[in-house]
Amino acid sequence: DMLKGFLEEGYPLYCGESARRIIPNIQRLLERELARGSTVFFLCDHHAPDDPEFSMFPPHAIEGTAEAEVIPELANYKGEVIPKKTYSSFFGTPLEEKLKKLKPKKVIVCGVCTHICVLYAVADARIRGYEVEVPVDCVASFDEKSHHFALDYMENTLGAKLTNLVTSRAKPAKFEPLEAVLSGETADVYFARTVEILRKEGINPVATMEFFAGRAGVLCGMEEVKALLARVLPKGKCEVWALAEGEAIKGREVVLRITAPYQSYGLYETAIDGILAHCSGWAT
């Protein structure tokens, strides 16, 4: 579903910048696989104007419209377009028969959205006995929590192999936060005072804090930040969303979002900002 309707701004189901970020990686993937002699299929949403799916989603990818076309960044790569009317790449399409003839060693699935059509494609392929690979930096969704849920489900329930096209999936090095950071010694006076007041008042509101880059660059230091948050945030009462270590980012793009009882992380805002800025080469 790497279609204009999902990847170009202005359409009702535009998936956002996180989806556009995977386009260069998919280009690399296609170039690699075509050079190896692999067969490429573009599975494309293709709906009638009165499709029942429009009771759940706004009308999109209607047959004969530009919205249903493969994005220009990928359209010139050699591949067969297969229209589909449901989340499934197999139901009501010729894909199953084509794969039977090809007898591939494995099926590589990429595109959008991770938790909808990508997940169904992986499930359908695994049910039919195919070895499936999903490059995690070649899939995306408009919903980050659902994106990660789908990746976990594909790997641990469906048995798909998750890989990274650009970087190794080796586990990152383990970091231990400095005691001076854990003790709150590095806290800016404003954050420290806020936590002090909340403790005296006996309240601990759940708050959301976002960190963003002042300019474009490459994100570094996120693994150190995650190690710190793992030590200080209460179990089961918070949500942390973060871009991946080493990811290219745009100016003013959110790189980290913490939702948790404020007292648990208020003393560490300065440290988090400092780690990300220092490692990424920015000013705080």
From TrEMBL:
The keyword rRNA-binding does not apply. Keywords: Hydrolase. InterPro entries: Isochorismatase-like_dom, Isochorismatase-like_hydrls, Isochorismatase-like_sf, Quinolinate_PRibosylTase_N_sf, Quinolinate_PRibosylTrfase_N. GO terms for molecular function: hydrolase activity; pentosyltransferase activity. Residues 188-280 form the Quinolinate phosphoribosyl transferase N-terminal domain. It holds the Pfam family Isochorismatase. Residues 1-160 form the Isochorismatase-like domain. This is Isochorismatase-like domain-containing protein.
